[in-house]
Amino acid sequence: MVIVLPLSNKGKLELLNSFKRAALTVFALTISILSYAQTGKISGTVTDKKTGETLIGVTVKIAGTTKGVSTDIEGRYAIGGLTAGKYTLNLSYVGYTSKNVSDIQVSGNQSTIVNLILEEAGGANLGDVTITASVKQESVNSLYASQRNSTRISSGITADQIRKSPDKNTSEVLKRVSGASIQDGKFLVIRGLSDRYNVALINNSLLPSTEPDKRAFSFDIIPSNMIDKIVINKTATPDLPGDFAGGVTQVVTKDIPDSKFINFAVSTGYNTQSTFKDFYSNERNSTDFLGFDDGTRSLPTNFPSTRGAYNGGSTNLRIANSKLFPNLYAERKYIALPMQNYQFTWGNVAKFKNEGTFGSIISLNYRREQNQRIAEREAFDGINFINKYQDLNYRYNVALGGLANFSYKIRKNKISLKNLFNQSFEDSYINRNGFINQNTDIRYTSSEVNQKSLLSSQLEGEHQLGEKNIKLEWNLNYALIKREQPDLRTIMYGSIQNSNSPFSLIDDNTKRFFSDLNENNYGGSASLSLPINVFNKKGTFKFGGLKQLRDRDFSARIFLYTPASSSEFDANKLILPKESIFSTNNISRDGFVLDEITNNQDSYTGKTDLNAGYLMLDQALAEKVRLILGARVEGYKQTIDALNSTGQKRSYEKDFFDVLPSLNVTYSLNEKSNFRLSGSRTVTRPELRELAPFVFVNQEEGVQIAGNPELVRSQNTNADIRYEYYPSPGEAFTFSVFYKNFQNPIEQVTDGSSTADNLKFSYQNADKAYTYGFELDVRKKLTFLSDAKWLENLIAFANFTYLKSEVRSSIPGFQTRQLQGLSPFLINAGIQYNSPETGLSFNALYNRIGDRIGKVGNESVPNIYEKGRDVIDFQISKKVLKNKGEIKLNVSDILNQSNVSFLNFGPNNKTFNRSDDAIYYSYKSGTNFTIGFSYNIDFKNK
């Protein structure tokens, strides 16, 4: 595939040509080795039928041959070097009934995955009995076992299911999980609860937030082919973090592949309101396309390092220092190019004579896109519109990512080093036209660059100790988070409404802003699982601990263009165009100079220290009853150090100690259904940004946001009841009822000093709140419609979550309302077709969340609601080139309905009425069409 881009920059064009040559070389290599390694493999895992635990040391042999292996520390096995044909596996394990699994079809150069289950020998003579099953029966039994044996109320998706889907990244995969939805293409919502109430784990460690201003992880940065499994836990157990109320998402990435492989993918996309249309911004620098600023936007090297040092200088010295800033306000016109995405993954596995195995997976990902938003903003006081304007928002985004996992396992031990890196670059350029203050027409532009980096590294181990299957797990982790806003520029011109007066500079809104955030995360955890036997019933006693440290440093500097000398200033310069108004000639005594207006609160340091320990018992009480009982204790210390308005150092420090018990009971009604009961205590903690007293201006919404260092954590009580029925593999019917009580829930609120045209937001604890609801999930094959064979591959699914919430307060006159950030309902529905015979797949997805409070109002400003909208996505894919290649077509957000946040003035509470309510912020993003091609080269081990 050759994509010709109309780039004028010679260096970029040369680099692009290099990419093309490399891609063609890889493709040629692909074609040349298609005939390599035409032997197949059988691989999978072996688990206990009742508990779902993987079994270590099970002997798995090919019947009638000497080929055989023992399952490793993860319960996995792999037997390679098999010619095409049918095989039978023999399984044997001390204390378990032996099993033969027949009719396993192996094709040349392919891996056949067969997951197996073993059942404990139940009597004196059963040790001599061998169970015989076909591979089809075993696949059914294995899936039933995995669905039934979860210790918690959870939903998940495995690598095998992901492999059969056309999803390219983790956020797309999560759309298929019951009770989950994705916002903005990357952020996870569980049971209608947004980022504040959810936490994520990657490979047994807390996942650092990719968004420094809130607790949210951008799941679109992890390629789907890197995932081993994803589980969303909706109830607590002692071995999970205690800081959640919605769900805990566990993402496990692959480490040791089944065989050596190379995979590459390329895709391009068209946006209906952006692609090939005019696209404006300030001039880009030479490395923006790689996701890094080249330093052009940084503070000048020799510029004074503090506000006092700069403002304390003479006028002439300040003019000289102001001239060090390049004039970057000139607007440039580009053409929005199609979205581009490139992905390369390499996997390797080596087996040694000492039974050791070393595996590695390395993945690189690059994405670039240009989108235009047409947005509206209104400020309404209930009688008049104070401000009203329209934005053309041009967003240039680049994401560069990498994943590198290395693992070594030998017999009953495994050690892994897992690394994730992501570099994100967004240049948001706004052209704004409208009026403010009821009497002033404005022309406003801003250029805001956000450059974010995430590096996460983990060293972890799993070990089976002794002959009693004692299991030790440990994890050491480090994460670095950086966010830079180099030279956020704004400029505003105004003119008296309905007059012929020229537009002149409004200097209060003409600024340059620089900020730098650095955060280090250090952590470690360990756990020990001891097999026990109580009244001849198997169980596990598990205990462990965790420590997590966060250390953040933030600083900002803010400058304002003002007349250098009131007596010498040439007022004619106020009407100069933005391209030349701040040129070097106009930074002078009769022109402009920068005035630093950095406040004492514009920098802070933050620290958190989490220490946790837990005890957990997982015990079968009877043939059909399983109990998971225990408690987690968490000690948490949060510290914010900042200067107050007078320049005095303030330290805001709070310590919390929580005992978090949990109980999960599972009653197996039969082989296909369970009844579950769960109760727990959890907490919800504020983010560092929510604690910091720093005030930041959101350029898109035109509002101020400040933290509150007096915030405390919310204490949550959770109760769940669930019935689940699995009629056949891939089908499910589940119904859950749940209740949550929040003490001191954290909400984003409107500051008491806010007015309609000067909104300020902060965070505060409400007194208490509760929510209750139910969740219904159905997955059903459509074979009941007719006997047509193709209906075996067609599945319809739907999930509906209903939530009722209420916030209460002891404040006189307080009116009860729903909890901020909580959607009253969530709908996910779709239909999916996947044909292994033809390689054709398609799916259609529908999603909607109910209107929810985005920001809590006050006496003069009503609640600001986020309006729900209907989202429909469609995807179709086709396997080609002997199933090694795949072509995909995605159409996302087909309806392209507006994203609307509104001030709820109307009498019909919580429902948007355009004649009564005011638009706080509204925009459309367009419909995206994406076509891609991927190719996989699998070097099967002989």
Q: Could you walk me through the main structural features you see in this protein, from its secondary elements to its overall organization?
A:
This protein has 942 residues and is mainly beta. Helices cover 7% and strands 55% of the residues. It has a 22-stranded antiparallel beta barrel. The radius of gyration is 30 Å and the shape is globular.
SSE arrangement:
Layout lengths: L9 H23 L7 E9 L10 E4 L5 E3 L5 E7 L2 E8 L5 E9 L4 E3 L2 E3 L11 E5 H14 L5 E5 H6 L5 H5 L5 E4 L3 E4 L7 E5 L2 E2 L20 E7 L13 E7 L6 E12 L6 E5 L24 H5 L3 H8 L8 E5 L3 E13 L4 E25 L4 E26 L2 E24 L3 E26 L4 E27 L7 E2 L5 E24 L2 E27 L28 E5 L6 E18 L4 E19 L5 E22 L2 E12 L3 H4 L3 E4 L4 E4 L7 E12 L6 E12 L2 E5 L9 E6 L2 E14 L12 E15 L16 E11 L4 E10 L2 E4 L8 E3 L4 E10 L4 E8 L6 E5 L14 E7 L3 E12 L3
Parallel strand pairs: 1-7, 1-8, 6-9, 13-16, 35-39
Antiparallel strand pairs: 1-4, 2-3, 2-5, 5-6, 10-15, 11-12, 13-14, 15-16, 17-20, 17-50, 18-19, 20-21, 21-22, 21-49, 22-23, 23-24, 24-25, 25-26, 25-27, 27-28, 28-29, 28-30, 30-31, 31-32, 32-33, 33-36, 34-35, 36-37, 37-40, 38-39, 40-41, 41-42, 42-43, 43-46, 44-45, 45-48, 46-47, 47-50, 48-49
